[in-house]
Amino acid sequence: MGKELLLKVLRHEEADRVPWVPFAGVHAGALKGYSAREVLTDEEKLYESLMEVFKLYEPDGMPVHFDLQIKAEILGCELLWAEENPPSVLSHPFAGTELKVPCKCKIPKKTDGRLPIFLNVMERLNKEIGDKTALYGLICGPITLASHIRGPEFFMDIIMYPDYAKQMMEFCVEVCNTLSDYYVEAGMEIIAIVDPVLSQISPKSIEDLFLEGFTAIFDFIRSKDAYGCFFVCGNATLQLDVMCRSNPDCISIDENVNIYEAKKITDQYNITIGGNIPLTTAMLFGNQQDNMKYVVDMLDNIDHKNLIVSPGCDMPYHIPVENTIACAQAVINTEETRKFIENYEAVDNLPEVTLPDYNKLDKPLIEVFTLDWETCAACTYMVKAAEIAEEVYGDKIDLRVYKYNTLEEIARTKAMEVEKLPSIYVNGELKWKSIIPSRQELTELLDTLI
Q: Does 119 share its domain with 222?
């Protein structure tokens, strides 16, 4: 059974093949013609969509949802809904100058918000397919949750008010453990702590302020006889070592991280690593052969022990079904797939783009390159940091934001030779790579240019 295969790998045992886990969040709804909002607010539509994921993609493991805003909504954040993306956080109830920590009575109850929908679906899926595929319960990690509650100020709090940042972390750890308890009780055997903005925090700050909290989360999950996975987005290369020291069973990375180099780190700690099929260039805009080739090439060049093959993150809504099936077949039937693509050569279908003449700009130009600022929390807060410049300088500057989810903007990102997302360029020069700038840093730079 696929489930036992995946659990073997999470126990760091030898397995017959590498397991396959498609992260079909709102993409699950697309399989049945439901919008993102429908599939995240309607129990029957979510259940129906996830059963279609199980049927089409032959997963060894699968998430029940990939909505990181469930807790934020319960804690008072207003959400911005989209038809083809999970909701994003629009407001931050603890933003401002007062350093407050939510009181303990704010810890979510099973009956709060949309939790009953997901808990019911978890129980139903566990009963129907839980013996065949391992089910993931995804939880917004404590740093990202703190930034949702507090807003962009949280990144300055880490520097200016570290004791307060640690208190916020402690509250968010308790929230994470509470939801982990609910999810395990509902039948989830794998709890994934998804903390996208972790890649924007320095390893030293993580070690000084947050490592104890992350370790407590994974210890709690283990005490419930479940497996703990640590999901991160963006260029988390520098953060991988300290992530490993929080003692999860697995770490999952996206395409910003070189999985071959990352596995050298996770292997030192005997931790499983998952990832990292490119979401856009392969899964969204590639063809079946592109996806097969990516997976086969990865499997041919990496040690299979302690390895899970999966998309780099939550799968975009419009990924062609045949591309995901191609990935599944490349994992499950690798030898047959290798023969099928042995003479295949990928074709570059990116359009030509014209970059600005950075030497002849009328005013400073800030360009933010993101994976997708509407769905990626790390990207969202990078964009919000840049928008502060608009608030301060108005029409004295230009601001442009790009998403790595259209062919034109992928081409632009490559033409600029952007290495990691999200990144901020000013007048064509890289200024911040996977680190969110403070208001002071941004304004000090712009003051020299205006």
A: yes
